[in-house]
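Subject: Protein record for review, amino acid sequence with backbone structure tokens
Why sent: The fold of this protein is of interest and is recorded here as tokens.
Enclosed: The protein record, placed directly beneath this head.
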Amino acid sequence: MKNGRRALLFLLLAAVLFTACGKKNEKPTVAVTDIVFHPCTGEVTIGQYKGLKMKIEVPAVTDADIDRQIKEFLAVRPNYVEDLDRAGDAVKKGDFVNIDFVGTVNGEPFEGGSSQGYDLEIGSKTLISGFEEGLIGSKPGETVTVDATFPETYTRQPSLAGVTAQFEVTINYISKKADYITDEYVAKNSRSYKTVEDFRKFVKENLEKDAREKAEEEAGLKLLDEVVNASKFGEIPEADIQYYYRRLIAPYESYAQQSGLELSAFLKLYTDYSSAEELYARSREMALDSVKQFMVLQKIAEAENITVSDEEYEEYVTGVRTEGGYADNASVEQLFGKDFLTYSKQMEKALAFIADNAVRE
């Protein structure tokens, strides 16, 4: 988590949706529903929010940007190529190997028991017990027979649970991870693309789409800042500020507690904050900014009769589920609360209203 000013929509869901400030990316134990939903109650006279000038500056996507994206993809799905320096070596634990194999039980092949050109890390326990161990000591070009046993509980094919199968395995080559992609790799890992050129074009198009969406979001938030700066605020209740303040600091306090660390020590290790005092001070500033933003958006939603339909609500909850990696929509609603989610979507629509009614330069 960074300690700079966050975008409005990130702020609204920061307490539980974006929780990657620790190494394990765990969800905090403090649910949003533990912080009772509290719409803003202060008075505001809003400034002009229609017909504002909106300038969207979309940065160009470069070859370097594409290369970075491909490297990120390779980190998740590596490109294994033959390690020519290991051509005559015996397979050992930790090696990556490319293999063909055919599995049988009592001499009969079984579904899913065969593959060609399979990339395997020896010792990763990717395959069933005994398979990887049985390849240690073999050399590229050799074919060995390996006995391997399915787990006692094997839900994928219950009939194989606890069964020992025989696998005829050919070691094609010892491999290594490459920092580049090839046509063969693209064809193997994509249903839609066959060449590096096609894949790079696909990556570029997606980066351009993301860049445009980000630029539009930033431009929309600048418009909101204009409206906020042009608005006149009455007294802002402390309870309003505390609501967003608690949303901001609760995840950090929860993570620190889970880690068994004092808050300041946790912040120094895992975030850009140097102390609890800095977290509290900056969070209060952001909370006050948030209150003003939401006061304005609430007024716009009221003036323009902006509501949230059942379909919009379900779509929004699905988006939160996908972004946050939650099990299902019911889990999202239980964690956030329906009132909070409805409000969040309504504020999103109010923000979109400002942008939709702006004059684009």
